[in-house]
Amino acid sequence: MAAAPRIISLIIAALCCLLPSTAAQKPDLAIAVCRNTTDFAFCREAVYSDPRAPGADRYELIDIIFRLAYRNASDTRGYIAGEVKSGADELKKCLGDYDKAVAILEGMLNDLNSESYYDLDSRSLDIQHRVSDCGKGLRIGVGIARRNQNMLKLANMCYAVSKLF
Ligand SMILES: *[C@@H]1O[C@H](CO)[C@@H](O)[C@H](O)[C@H]1NC(C)=O
Ligand SMILES: *[C@@H]1O[C@H](CO)[C@@H](O)[C@H](O)[C@H]1NC(C)=O
After folding, report:
1. 23 in a domain, yes or no?
2. Is the pLDDT of residue 53 over 90?
3. Average pLDDT of the segment spanning 91-100
4. In degrees rounded to 5, what are phi and psi of residue 36?
5. Which residues are the signal sequence here (predicted)?
């Protein structure tokens, strides 16, 4: 009864050869979109934190990226609001920028829900401008600087994925 192990190893060998070749035929859209962003590694890591990323079509991908950006923007907005509350008046302009960024992302997520895909790229650019505006001319603390950098990259990802529509 030496046949069974041989068959199993044949099957394993066949799978080894087949899987990479089928995978090579269909590179993930997520990877193609991340190649069009300012920081490929950051983009890939962020997108693939969502289990829907492998094999995602453009509708799933834009949902993944806009949600990531929305979560990040809301989180950073909350952080800045806390700093302003404890006396960091110079961050008020930043808070205004993030209020706006969060509102734009909310609007875009609502549009996705109602299957409307207009002006997503220009609104993504608007977010990018707000976020870099926050970073400008401020002696901002390390906590905000890092968050702002992340958010800038996420806004750029929003722009790249919007270009699919
Ligand atoms: C990446 O950008 C190029 C140049 O703008 C464009 O032709 C291409 O379609 C983009 N790829 C994706 C996946 O969006
Ligand atoms: C913002 O995005 C970065 C990169 O994906 C991540 O490390 C960070 O945890 C995110 N923050 C929130 C609140 O989602």
Report:
1. no
2. yes
3. 95
4. -95, 15
5. 1-24
Question: What is the pLDDT of the chain when averaged over all its residues?
Answer: 88
Query: Which ligand sits closest to the CA of 149?
Result: 2
Q: Is 11 contained in some domain?
A: no
Give the list of residues 6+ apart from residue 143 with CB closer than 8 angstroms, or none.
Answer: 79
Q: Report the half-sphere exposure of 47 (CA within 13 A, side-chain side).
A: 33
7 lies in some domain: no
Residue 17 lies in a domain: no
Ligand minimally distant from the alpha carbon of residue 148 = 2
Q: How many domains does the chain have?
A: 1
pTM (two decimals): 0.84
- The residue ranking higher by pLDDT, 164 or 12, is 164
Where do we find the tokens 């990802």? 157
Q: Is 162 in the pocket of ligand 2 (CB under 6 A)?
A: no
Cβ atoms of 158 and 39 within 8 Å: the answer is no
Residue 5: what residue type?
P
